[in-house]
Amino acid sequence: MKTRREFLRSTLLGASATWTVPMFVERTFADLHMGARDLATQPVTGKDGTILVVLQLAGGNDGLNTLIPFADDAYHNARPRLAKKEKEIITLGDHVGLNGSMPFLGSLFKEGNLGVVQGVGYPNPNRSHFVSTSIWETADLENRSSTGWIGRYFDNACSGSDPTVGISLNKTQPESFGAMKNPGVCLSSPELYRWIHGGGEKAQAEEFFASLNSPEDDDDSPVDGASIDMPAGGRTGGIEGESNLAFLERVAMDARVSSAKILELAAKYKTKVAYEGTPIARSLNMVSRLIAGGMPTRVYYVSHGGFDTHNQQVNSHDRLLGQLDRALKSFFADLKAQGNAERVVLMTFSEFGRRVAENASAGTDHGRASCLFVAGEGVKGGLYGKYPSLTDLDQGDLKHTVDFRGVYASVLEGWLKTPSKPVLRGDFAKLGLIG
Amino acid sequence: MLQAAPEEWTIFEAAHLLRRAGFGGSPDEIRLFHSMGRRKAVESLLAADEELDAFPLPGWATSEEAAAEARERVAQARELRQLTRDLSPEEADRKRREFRQKQQRTERQHSVEGQGWWFNRMLRTHAPLREKMVLFWHDHFSTSFQKVKQPVLLMKQNELFRKYAMGSFKDLTHEVVKDPAMMLYLDTQNSRKGKPNENFAREVMELFTLGEGNYTEQDIKEAARAFTGYQINRLDGTVTHNKRQWDNGEKAIFSKKDRYDGDGVVDLIFEQKSAATYLPGKLWEYFVAENPPQEGVDALGKSFRAANFRIEPLLREIFLSKAFYAESVMHNQIKSPIQYLVQMLKELELRQAPAAYILSAQQQLGQVLFMPPNVAGWDWGKAWINTNTLLSRYNVAGFITKGSQDDTPLANNDDGAMMDMEMDRKQMRVSNAMQRAAQRWEGPDFERIAPRELREDPEKLVDALIFRFFQMPLSGKERETFVEYARSKKGAIFTNKETGELCHLMLSTPRYQLD
């Protein structure tokens, strides 16, 4: 396993005059532009640190049928076809209970390792999936930030570290990873996470590949300020202000540095715990393998999609929550078996909740406040925040009682041990979820 | 009006136009295109001479066969109901499951065929701009097999996009509002009086016509009432407006009051200011560059409204503008996966590639035809690229250039781990079966692309290949790297295999990802 620094050092020192891999690599890295050289020589993040897993429920999870206010008549009245009966609920208190398809989370709650945050949202919510997701991922209510909240954590607390400080098990890079310096890496299948070249000419081909996939000091280095037409992305895990070519070169280098390492680690650990074949279970399985292998990764990001339940909601929603519950059950059992359970906290989020009343299609439309889960041995279990009133509504929607940035502040400060103010660009009351 | 570019142009500008307004071409095609001159070349794209039905649809996608199939399904369902009446509940359940599975198999097969059909059309068409616009509309009015589940409806929608490719955006929007695939995708078909489903009204304004922030929540709620009562006839795929399910009360939308229906809302929308600028902004991003300049969008907005929302004049203005050929614009767009694949095949002068492999490549690169991730379509630009998809691009290029003689996991990958959705996985299995047939892929004709005599002169060979793949001069160091490789192979061992390797190396570069 190599950090970016070690990778560079070994290839620089190992250079020889023959046509071998190191020669080309050496030739190229000697030419690295300043920005990339800085990035490449920073120390790596410690691999025994705490780990945060962020799990996105994409599509707007219906909080009312996840954390169910079973004792509230208004709930049953507003949802004649969707409301859960008391026997379909795992009671958590006098007022609320979990959807019955989540027995594992129910038991986690009873063991004191599940924090359930009620009424999470933000002021003047946006009901567009895309804008609202963006707001959650950037932690910027104006939706103008080109960096994500996790990316800013990397920039502030893990500056210049190994590209694998953040790993997203997704086909696309989450907006929350958008960073000024290091946006982490993205992979979906470790078996394919490498450059595959021709048979016999392997070494030589690799040499060219290395040479051609390293940043050069020509006209495309990152630029400060106005010399680029328009501020480029960051919204997609890119570095702000970077040209497309410089961006591609950097991604290519991050891919090279991380692929060998990830391949090696992912192949090493074989889990004894059974996981389902669902995408979310497979993603969590991979996260567990990488943790077991000793990746220096601080934040993993996984997604569980399908929560946009406008139509015939009951079956699909229960099924999705059940898949989530079983995936988490395997994941936490696996972490325990490895002896890493104490190092990991998992947090869910979704862009918004649904309206209180069901619609004509036995589904629910885009709403506002919802609930989220924070799970792990490091979590102080219990209910947090106040369940929003089902009768005092804002245009048919629940009013939020907890600002989601307070949850972020809690995990940043309590779990990742980093000041949250520079990351969240403001002070937000912690909820006491950790510890 | 945007400032126009002069008539004379360079071959690199011609190549740029052919890539952006189409899918690029071989060196010969580019030379021919350049010789037409800028204005004629643009006109040749806008008025391409190819019938709409030049590529016959797969049988199941034609109206006649689709109708017959639908009737057959209804008959079978009736039969099944009768049959199961006399069976035990378990047996009946099993029969029903079998019936469903059989149907799903057919649908998967059809969706794979539909994906192949369109991809091939993009590759072989003589109207590349039209196909590029169909892809634009598919992204703009996004719908997916995953939810619609009836491939024939998406094929029908695809034909609709082709018919209106460069026509009136307003007319197309009227059509899309009553398009069965779109209605199924956004759950419009059972939105009715009293309890409207807001989804459709929201996406029409947010994503299709006006853009976020150019309407109020009240507009959405009221428009949702107007969109009630539209129903699909599952037998023939026609859409009717059932007045009994329609909320015929008065609605206040954009401060106007009337008893609007869906068409009424669309007409109202096109009176809004941002209806004239929203789409030109998106077209600019699609064809020119991200973050369109405000003056540019405003200028195009004016032309767009004056042209009564017709697309063709707008495209002419863009492709003849100075801005389109700016240095900062050329070679600075990240290829979408579809663009990447089609263009690479054209540059390698391939008329086809193993269909199942192409589908699998789309999955790995993050853009599967007829399967956009959500109603907002795909994320473009830098979002196409991450460590994962970049390595996949390099490996796809390896397979296409060198064929299946290498043991590439990509070519026989059975692991569904990269799949997001159930449907993806099932489709993957279908494609895996087909993929085995693709194992004999022999790659491009290198005797033609890199003739033997050229291999005797490494510099000339490299320059020829650089023009083929990059259509721009490369910096000294980049070029030198390739020359060095070609030089080391010169002589007895410079076979097609080494040529393929050289091409793979050229395509395994950050630079090749840019158009």
Automatic annotation (TrEMBL), chain A:
Top-level taxon of origin: Bacteria
Cited InterPro entries: DUF1501, TAT_signal
Region named Disordered: 213-236
One family name in Pfam for this protein: DUF1501
Protein name from the UniProt record: DUF1501 domain-containing protein
Organism: Luteolibacter luteus
Automatic annotation (TrEMBL), chain B:
Source domain of life: Bacteria
Stretch list, region Disordered: 83-110
Pfam families for the chain: DUF1800 (PF08811)
Matches recorded under InterPro entries: DUF1800
Protein name as annotated: DUF1800 domain-containing protein
Organism annotation: Luteolibacter luteus
